[in-house]
Amino acid sequence: MTRALVTGAGKRIGRAMALYLADRGFDVVVHYGQSETAAQEVAELIRAKGRQAVALHADVLDEAQVQSLLPRAVEALGGPVTCLVNNASIFEHDTLQTATRSGWDRHMESNLRAPYVLTQAMATQGLIAKLDSEGEPVAAGLIVNMLDQRVRALTPEFSTYTLAKMGLWALTQTSAQGLAPALRVNAIGPGPTLRGAQQTEAQFAAQRAATVLGRGVSAADICAALGYLLDASGVTGQLICVDGGQHLGWQTPDVVGKE
Mind telling me which Gene3D superfamilies this protein's record contains (predicted)? Predict the structure, then answer.
């Protein structure tokens, strides 16, 4: 695996993963939606590491732009993409009571439809599994879908976002079935990693402290999970929650002090 496409790679976790993949020897397409300057900076950093890199724009809410993204990446890097990280995401609060059709469409298009289209594009590149020394097939490509630990710990908050991520989890499993052995498909479910735009520092610190491990995670933890998935040739259809155990939270009012 030598060529990667990371969506939403201009900032935050996407940036960290793009740089990590370059350190692992990948040439990288740095996709961005609005963060052109940041994406160009990431591409420049990757080139400084001795790898090829290009920043490509595509609006994940525009089907035509998403459909053209992987072919453009192949052209830019001079060969098939062997690692796709579906990281670009829209994350906006709503509930069953407040959700709108517009919010539904934004979350479904960005978090589910765009990864679906890019997964289809990966499947049509003609990647073929090779046999290892034991005569068993080794996948020629890897897709990693960025989910959210909340798919393991459902709440009524962030309703349409959560539904879209649940759909992406279903896509992870069914595409792992349908694209084997040529491609492996896995997922990472981050917990409290980087402070959200709507959070104060105090709120973010409290969220991290409330996990089972009493701590949040770092971008390096996310990249460590990505590295495992790169190396684990026998793993597909799996979700790794990198969240300090947040999805295991059990000390809710109905049980605390009751047992």
Answer: NAD(P)-binding Rossmann-like Domain (3.40.50.720)
CB 227 within 8 A of CB 20: yes
Q: Is 258 a catalytic residue?
A: no
- Tell me if residue 165 is catalytic: yes
| Residues lower than pLDDT 70 in the chain | 1, 195-197, 253-259
Contact (Cβ atoms closer than 8 angstroms) between residue 165 and residue 111? yes
Q: Is residue 234 part of a domain?
A: yes
- Structure tokens given for 84: 């796709």
Burial class (CB in 10 A: 0-12, 13-18, 19+), 123: middle
50: region left, alpha or beta (phi > 0 left; psi from -120 to 50 alpha): left
pLDDT for the residue numbered 256: 61
Does any domain span residue 256? no
Per the residue annotation, which of 11, 20, 161, 228 is the catalytic one? Answer: 161
How many independent structural domains does the chain possess?
Answer: 1
Cα separation, 142 vs 237, in Å, equals: 11
Q: Which of 11, 130, 165, 258 is catalytic?
A: 165
